[in-house]
Design brief:
heterodimer; A: alpha/beta; Rossmann fold; five-stranded mixed sheet; 38% helix; globular; B: OB fold (Dihydrolipoamide Acetyltransferase, E2P); Dihydrolipoamide Transferase; 3 domains; six-stranded mixed sheet
Chain lengths: 331, 447
């Protein structure tokens, strides 16, 4: 890995990954609603139409079913499509092609077919976009064998993981975070900087408690962890980065070390992926090292409200994270 | 409103009392201060006075019944007045625990209701793993987590030789505020069980019935409370204090003379008959003033000697089925007449079981007299926290050489048992010597 780094936003890191891969491999192309002329609903693909032309940066009709279907079809024929769904909420319409076609083909054709497609979709609340444009639906995709699910929480991870997703021969759901798009971070400019799917990362080392978080909640957790460090509480922050496949080894070892686990995400608690992570811990040898019940801090089981006060109230706050730490430490 | 009559709590450690006799019947009128009934506590009988005037509306507990202290036993009020619905009030340790648990439950209601499984341990997986690895029985580890959950740190800090106790016993001891160090465990390997704790709070489940063994010739009779207390106190004293006994023979000629001289006068003044014992008590009180160590006690931690600038003299009074040691306060300041009155008073009230509990506590020295039974010598056991006890024996006529000739003299042996932690041989001997001298010249005790 090159040591050369560049400060850039999460959004630009996503674009850099796409641009680098499109320059390297002519089979890689981008399609989606307003990704060309407009540069994407959140401006992720600004300038890409100019560099790669309409053949490789394709504006599509307003039909997520068509986008996903075309992507799956193109992928089976040997292309490596990147399909953008403007809001993650709209993946509902793309579900059939994704779940019943893309996810199944490699298995049903005995490995003779591969489906190297990436479905990029920004998720999460915090932008005042209300209940139909703010959901975190990653758990749905995690439940479908054949799909890989990635949720980067930093700019560097966004670049390294997206490049790995594009190069992967399986369909990957790449969940971007709307509220992180403008957050800056140090990103390696090496065009071979790849973060393998299925590799989590300890974002901060600690001894007393492991907080496992990803996506939008990650910076929030890190902030609380730094504050607690000054108060003498050593928090380890673990970002799995990829939900499927999950880096179980990293999680189990961390929880074995600290004996306590708090899981934080933005998605609704019930049926959410935190339950899966908690179960992985309980079923593993880490169970015998638990010195407190595992705590899940997740979004409330409600549609995301439009009122900004309520919108921020339904997702885990810094205070809730702090309180959870004190609770598992019996303080 | 009808007023409750309750079983009074007549002493710090009184847990229950028995109703000997109601002096009033239901419907009788009683004046405030009038004797309503007589009860028996662990050690004494006492009269319970009406705290208010009115009609005895209801007797809830009858003669012979034993009830916990502060339990309502009757109601006084206006004629025809309704009495509150009578509910069985048998507050036991168990009840108290349940009430406490209820309160805690309410406090923690925000958590979803979870079935509490008794006899199962609340411990984290990490604590269990460590206990497994170190071969530690989690029942013996006290949890520091929420709801007493045993955390890994608790197992880590657990040391072999910690007090072994069942969770229930630990809980009761906590509620009753009993220091675990003071409980002797009777369970497996000395583990403290529920009964051990209950014994200390005086709540043991009673089983007074006498049991005849299979052979028909052996009976097992539970001890009375008094017997138990005597057994406990005597064992404690005997097994904690290293003692020895000093004996000396006293010529009682002049004591007998003195008694004969003052007998009529004292009888006239006080209607009480002076005894030899009274004179011995006074002489002892006088002698103790000059021997403060013999009148001292050892502090509970065994590191200090507590001196008393007064003499509170206890005298052992034998009863049909036990023994009590009522105290004569300030015996050193008394005249012979006063001590005659005081000694008679407490003796009579002891025999009639009318002493107040406080009259049995706080002595500085004890005298035990077995002379009337012809005993010539014995080694009494110290009445703790005293440091010594004087055994008084019978007066025997003996041939004593006086100026080379045999003379018949009334001789008596005094036996002084001392606690060697406080009193050395010389100190005890000097006290006995002094006492002997006072008794052989009893005029000195009158000055």
């Amino acid at each position: 890995m090159s040591e050369q780094m560049k400060e850039m936003t999460y959004k630009d890191a996503v674009k850099l990954a796409m641009v680098e891969e499109m320059r390297k491999d002519e089979n890689v192309f981008l399609m989606g609603e307003d990704v060309g002329l407009y540069g994407g609903a959140f401006g992720v693909s600004v300038g890409m139409l100019e560099e790669f032309g309409e053949e490789r940066v394709r504006d599509t009709p307003i039909s997520e079913a068509a986008i996903a279907g075309a992507a799956a079809g193109a992928a089976v024929t040997g292309m490596r499509p990147i399909a953008e769904i403007m809001f993650m909420d709209f993946t509902t319409i793309a579900m059939d092609s994704l779940v019943n076609q893309a996810a199944k083909m490699r298995y049903m054709f005995g490995g003779k077919a591969k489906v190297p497609m990436v479905l990029r979709a920004p998720g999460g609340s915090g932008t005042g976009a209300a209940a139909q444009h703010s959901q975190s639906l990653e758990a749905w995709f995690c439940h479908v064998p054949g799909l890989k699910v990635v949720v980067p929480g930093t700019a560097a991870d966004a670049k390294g993981l997206l490049k790995a997703a594009i190069r992967d021969d399986n369909p990957v759901v790449f969940v971007e975070q709307k509220t992180l798009y403008k957050v800056k971070g140090s990103v390696p400019i090496d065009d071979e900087f790849i973060i393998p799917l299925g590799k989590g990362e300890i974002k901060k080392e600690g001894e007393d408690v492991t907080i496992i978080s990803y996506g939008r909640m990650l910076p929030r957790v890190l902030k609380v962890a730094e504050e607690l460090e000054e108060e003498g509480i050593s928090v380890e922050v673990l970002d799995p980065r990829t939900l499927v496949p999950l880096d179980k080894e990293l999680i189990i070892n961390s929880v074995k070390k600290t004996g306590r686990a708090i899981l934080v995400n933005e998605a609704c608690k019930t049926g959410g992926y935190l339950g899966e992570i908690a179960s992985v811990i309980s079923e593993s040898e880490a169970f015998d090292y638990l010195d407190a019940p595992i705590i899940r801090l997740a979004g409330l089981d409600v549609p995301i409200p439009y009122n900004p006060e309520l919108e921020s109230a339904v997702v885990p706050s810094e205070k809730q994270i702090r309180d959870a730490v004190f609770k598992v430490l019996n303080r | 409103m009808a007023i409750e009559v309750i079983m009074p709590k007549a002493g710090m450690d009184m847990q229950e009392g028995q109703i000997i006799k109601w002096y009033k019947n239901e419907g009788d009128y009683v004046e405030r201060g009038e004797v309503l009934l007589e009860i028996m506590t662990d050690k004494v009988n006492m009269e319970v006075e009406a705290e208010t005037s009115g009609y005895l509306l209801k007797i809830l507990k009858n003669n012979g019944e034993t009830v916990p202290v502060v339990t309502p036993i009757g109601y006084i009020g206006e004629k025809g007045e309704e009495i509150p619905e009578v509910k069985e009030s048998k507050e036991t340790v168990q009840d108290k625990l349940e009430i406490k648990e209820e309160i805690e439950e309410i406090k923690t209601k925000e958590e979803p209701e979870v079935l509490e499984i008794k006899d199962k341990i609340r411990a984290t997986p990490a604590a269990r793993r460590m206990a497994r690895e170190r071969n530690i029985n989690l029942f013996e580890v006290k949890g520091s987590g929420p709801k007493g959950r045993i955390q890994q740190i608790d197992v880590e800090n657990y040391k072999e030789g910690d007090i072994k106790i069942t969770p229930l016993a630990r809980r009761i001891a906590e509620v009753e505020g009993i220091d675990l160090e003071n409980i002797i465990g009777s369970g497996f390997e000395g583990k403290i069980i529920k009964e051990d704790v209950l014994k200390l709070v005086g709540k043991e489940e009673k089983n007074i019935t006498e049991e005849v063994m299979e052979d028909g010739r052996t009976r097992v009779v539970p001890m009375s409370n008094m017997r138990k207390i005597i057994a406990k106190r005597m064992s404690e004293s005997y097994f904690s204090a290293p003692t020895f006994t000093l004996n000396t023979e006293v010529d009682m000629t002049k004591v007998i003379e003195l008694r004969r001289t003052v007998k009529e006068q004292i009888l006239e003044e006080t209607k009480k008959k002076i005894t030899i014992t009274d004179i011995i008590l006074l002489a002892t009180a006088r002698a103790l003033k000059n021997h403060p160590l013999v009148n001292a006690s050892l502090s509970e931690d065994g590191e200090n000697i507590i001196y008393h600038d007064y003499v509170d003299l206890a005298m052992a009074v034998g009863l049909e089925n036990g023994l009590l040691t009522p105290v004569i306060r300030g015996a050193d300041k008394m005249t012979l007449t006063e001590i005659v009155v005081a000694a008679k008073d407490v003796t009579e009230r002891t025999i009639n079981m009318k002493l107040l509990p406080d009259e049995l506590q706080g002595s500085t020295f004890t005298v035990s007299n077995l002379g009337m039974y012809g005993i010539t010598h014995f080694d009494p056991i110290i009445n703790q926290p005293n440091s010594a006890i004087l055994g008084v024996n019978t007066i025997v006529e003996k041939l004593v050489p006086v100026d080379g000739k045999a003379k018949v003299k009334p001789m008596m042996t005094l036996s002084l048992t001392v606690d060697h932690r406080v009193i050395d041989g010389v100190v005890g001997a000097k006290f006995l010597q002094d006492l002997k001298s006072l008794l052989e010249n009893p005029i000195k005790i009158l000055i």
